[in-house]
Amino acid sequence: MTADPVPATQANGSQVEHAIDCQSLTYSWVVGTDPVLIDVDLQLVKGDRCLLLGANGAGKSTLLRILAGKKLTQTRCCKILGQDVFMKPPGGVVYLGTEWSTNPVVRSDIVVSHFLDSVGGYRHKERRDRLLQILDVDLDWRMHQISDGERRRVQLCMGLMGDWDVLLLDEVTVDLDVLVRADLIEFLVSESETRGATIVYATHIFDGLKNFPTKICHMQVGSTPRGMVPWPPADVPSDKLDLFTLALGWLREDKVLRKDKEESKGRIRGPKTDTKDRVTFYQKYDYAH
């Protein structure tokens, strides 16, 4: 069993209180198979806002689900608010992922007001009502009749209306329109600055995020080679900050690395013309033959 990680220290010798402390995390879907996460490090203090960047399949969702206590790991190397995320999960942690909207329950014929009350909305009236305004949610909507974007707004209202301390977001803003997304980002920044809440946000959409993160974590083929990258960088003028260009450069690098890694194992991405199914795939609807 891996020993508990040693707490980091500040320059004055005092210990840093990590809201999220994940060190050297390695994880495989099945024991004995190649790991999908390799020596991942993610350490954030209270009030940090971390943007989790990486290509599809880099391990972002797996990491977030582990931090949320939804997957058991073989080592105790992930802690939130000082507690093991699976063996002793802390309170105050909210995970919002994309799978929620496909749940048949949230697509049933239920009025939004009743739905929010059923999950305790009446206990958080002030925050609930503020989020209803930010997310532009109509209490008279019926869950089975609204769009995916509107259903996503209800999910965010439901998840954020409590006094959470750590928020794990996995691509949940992809369905939102630009205005609602901008207002939500402003709300999240305020939560971190006024309450010391910690946020990890995985996304592929970088518009309007220049002032959101305090840290950036690059996930590259299951690992975190750059560690925690401070944002904004001290040596870059504010008018030159460009998250999209930074992410694009990293993703191009990831593509080359992934290709080399897969070829070393005899795997080739893309169309294959020399396989036994070649004729079926390429000529099935080719009427010239």
TrEMBL record:
It comes from the Eukaryota. This is Uncharacterized protein. One of its GO terms (molecular function) is ATP hydrolysis activity. It holds the Pfam family ABC_tran. SMART domains: AAA (SM00382). PROSITE patterns: ABC_TRANSPORTER_2.
